Amino acid sequence: MFATRFAPSPTGYLHKGHAVSALTAFTAARAADGRFVLRIEDIDATRCRPAFEAAICEDLAWLGLDWETPVRRQSEHADDYLAALGRLEADGLLYRCFRTRREVAEAMASAPHGPMEVFRSGPLPPDEEARRLAAGEAFAWRLSLDAAERKLGGFAGLDFLEEDEGRIPARPELGGDVVLARKDVGVAYHLAVTVDDALQGITHVIRGRDLFEATHVQRLLQALLGLPTPAYRHHGLLVGPDGRRLAKRDRAETLRSLREQGMTPADLRKELGFG
Ligand code: GLU
After folding, report:
1. What is the domain range of residue 244?
2. Which atom of ligand 1 is nearest to the CA of 208?
3. In which band, very low, low, confident or very high, does the pLDDT at 206 lie, cut at 50, 70 and 90?
4. d(CA 178, CA 191)
5. Tell me, what's the pLDDT at 275?
6. What is the residue with the minimal CA distance to atom 4 of ligand 1?
7. Residue of the CA atom closest to atom 7 of ligand 1
8. Residue 106: what pLDDT?
9. Do both 166 and 87 map to the same domain?
């Protein structure tokens, strides 16, 4: 059965760009007589706030959306992510990375091909790793692209269906050796999303173009974890009056403030092309 989702992180109020994502997914689910799932991506307790989650639900209901219950909250499912992480580790696909964010940024800035080069450090020599572990230093788990490539015999066979465009070869190397478990949070975005999309039976991932590169990484994780691959639709992004992509910092464009200024859901749907 067709199933899609809207997966906001409760780190701020929803803006018009979120409304486009939510309406695109919701409309597709209704047209297919399928499921529409709201997932709260709140693994990062340092940035997420329950008040924002409540506001998200309020704003979506105001827009005229309804969704399946109970809503999946990532903060309540650490076991699922740790199980997936354990499988990847047992398969020799992960390594410990002790670098701080700043050290990673510095390494990237001095990379031979410039700062745009993706991060691929590989594991430390065993004795240095043992020494740092014994000293109690915190580490993140990174996915080793080299190990993944060996396990799959290369990435040539990996692709995904982009609706309207056809099959696209996945290029997971775009993301480098991504972090799958953060030092501070214990799990990272790509792993939680990949596991949840599979557990929730998502057949169509509908989200903004800003997450196109994420799809290449998540396609690799699906292959490594033996999970099904949904179809994808990456919709265009709204830009603000200054030509920049809308972000949570653009307070004036939050659905909440538009509502306070007297905009109706029908006005907004029409403006966004869902009238
Ligand atoms: N939680 C992510 C965000 O708010 C979206 C994840 C996704 O759609 O895969 O940007």
Report:
1. 1-76+239-275
2. 8
3. very high
4. 10
5. 81
6. 8
7. 7
8. 80
9. yes
Cα 131 → chain centroid: 33
- Residues whose beta carbon lies within 6 Å of some atom of ligand 1: 7-9, 41, 193, 207, 211
* CA dist., res. 55 & res. 9, Å (int): 12
**Does position 183 have pLDDT exceeding 80, yes or no?**
yes
For residue 111, pLDDT over 80 is answered with no
Ligand 1 center from residue 102 Cα (angstroms): 24
93 and 185 co-located in one domain: yes
Ligand 1 pocket test: pick from 4, 6, 9 the residue with the most ligand atoms within 8 Å of its Cβ.
9
Q: What is the pTM of this model?
A: 0.92
Please give the number of the atom of ligand 1 that sits closest to the Cα of 8.
Answer: 4
Of ligand 1's listed atoms, the one at least distance from the Cα of 197 is 9
- What number of other Cβ atoms are within 10 A of residue 116's Cβ? 7
CA angle 71/268/264 to nearest 5° reads 90
Contact between 246 and 215 (Cβ < 8 Å): no
Q: Are residues 99 and 218 in the same domain?
A: yes
